[in-house]
Amino acid sequence: MDNTIEKHIQNLRDRLTYLADIFVGKHRDNAQLLEEKLAAFEARARAGQLEDPFAELATVEDLFGYVERRLEASITPMDRVRIVRHPQRVCLRDILENVYDNFTEVGGQDEHSLDPSMLIARAVITRRRGKKTYTQSVMVIGQEKGHGAEFRNGGSVKPWGNAKAQQYMRVAETEGIPIHTYIFTPGSFPIEDYPGAAQQIARNIYSMAGLRVPVITVISEGGSGGAEAIGLADKRLMLSHGYYSVISPEGAAAIEGRLKAGQRATPELIEHCADHLKITAQDNLKFGYIDRIVQEPPLGARPWHFDFFRQLRQEVLRATDEVVISTRKMPVLKRLALARVRRPEANLDDMYTRWGLSSAAKDRLREKRQQKFLRLSRQAARDRPPFLTKMAAATWDWVSKPWISFKYDFYRKHQRQIRTFVEEMGNEWEVFKGRLLAPWHKLTHKLPSARTESKAKELTALSTWSDDGRRSKWNYISPRYKIDRAVTCPNSASYGCLDLWGPDLFAEFAGVCSHCGYHFPMEPEWYVKNVFDLGSVFEFNSEIEAGNPLDFPDFGARIAAAQKKTGAKSGCMTFEARIDNIKMVVAMLMGTFRGGSVGAAEGYKFVEAAQRAAKKRYPFLAYVHGTAGIRIQEGTHGVIQMPRCTVAVRRYIESGGLYMVLYDTNSFAGPVASFLGCSPYQFAVRSSNIGFAGPGVIKETTGMDVPPKYHRSYRALSRGHIQGIWDRRQIRANLKQALLTIGGRNLYYR
Questions:
Q1: Is residue 309 part of a domain?
Q2: What is the pTM of this model?
């Protein structure tokens, strides 16, 4: 048998295996038909009974193509997940070899790398304009799953792999070249070894929000928050058979089914979760979380689909050109250039756009990227304030804006000169007033006065005890103080703690073991009423409430139950408060509301709080009473809050604000890996746990048994993830100290 024919037969057998793998038992009649036709052709080929082998081979291949096109229409979201996970799926190295004209891998080679799952290459693309040829450089960053899969870790990147990506993003920014990122990951490798999974993802997102070069992202498999480490981009493209989700369907099924360690979800439940999480490219385009879909061949792109690579090359060129052109100032020229680039029939290889940007264009590029992410997901949050409330807020913003602009943009800049002028005028007035009233003072000085008598009485009278302003030690006492029994400390076996009387523990001791210092969890109200000045707390945006934007089955009822139980409309409370009359804005993630998980409503409130703090020049505190991560039932509406809130935080910090984070109880996953973990000042309450994933998830994902107390705050401190550990009873004093010593001159009280 001819070697060429044999290779084609092997290719068709691979396609049969591919069909069986992605459909797992479905469409068996189609698979059986193809198997029979291929077996018959192979038998005749080996027997030498083919009159025209290539013509008959073409007939069999056409049949395969027909069946694949027909099956394409029946693909489910879970089928797409299996497609992107399949070993035959295109990977980053295939893209480097077929989309770019040349490349050099940097930061490692094959298994000899800091983290082989993160591949970085300096690549070039050659384009023409007329007879002239131009070579354009680009930094390519992405997860690699194939080509040495035994050491690629399935595209699951370790913390130092994401650190490597951040390093070369900065290199690209220094060199002034665009960045193309490719997302092929089921999620990050959940370990806390320095620099830490959560903290490094947060640093990556924070850095990408401020990059001054074009960033283009192509998504194939965006599983969980680990995808966001290289996902904050000016243009986000997505392969038509890819998926982008807050969690894998299997992980969602485990949570929905409340499965214990070792239990497996049923295929039906997994399919159910995949359907309702809205993970496909079409879903994400509708939500606005991607900008364009790159069409793939039926049943997904594989390495031998060279037409797909040509199309992908055109799409990344088009996206990069659009980003660069959009930074231009002249609107007419901008519109003409964009129309030319966006023509479907345009061959971008024969059209050249200079990718270099001026300093002003870089600023416009960054601003446009940040504004883009700040606008995302607002439609997924339920914001229904009364009309009069809405009008009053808008009116107040309109009225206060000139005053704030005058106070901070003008007065603060010229404060010293104005103060000097006022003091000099005050001194001159005192001299003038003294001379003007001197005759009157001379006359009245000779008259008898009651002032002297009253002053003498004041000095000789006995002092009296005053109870004004006295208050109890705690303004709020946990209802658990009514537990009229002894409570055992969890550390009693280790430290020999004696049992504590419930009324003493939760009232006088504020839930802190008097022997070892273990902190029992407390209600959010304890912190609101005991940390801040009495009567100073003013809540805003309370009408924004969590909902069920994906219409996830039965989840609306669970949200309503949480609202009824807690009395809150969402898992985030935003308010203004004072500590010894120092005003600040606080965003509190409340662990009592669905574990403090973050969805569209919580992200909306957090962004608004950061913007309010920036406008008023107040310090901004993110108090994490507890967070279980991103709310999975909201799908990408939830995961998009990671880059969105991080952008808001970065803009606040760059405006000169002081952003602090305080962790309590359990703080995990997406929020820690984004808008919390990027803070330069992070503190934790004793006995709190901080990390990217819990011990059970780490065990299931990595097979590793983490040591006891792996996520405890003191370990996070030793790893450099936080900057200090506070006692609950000292939070107020410590916050006051931080406010007086940390922060820039832009804050109003400086």
A1: yes
A2: 0.88
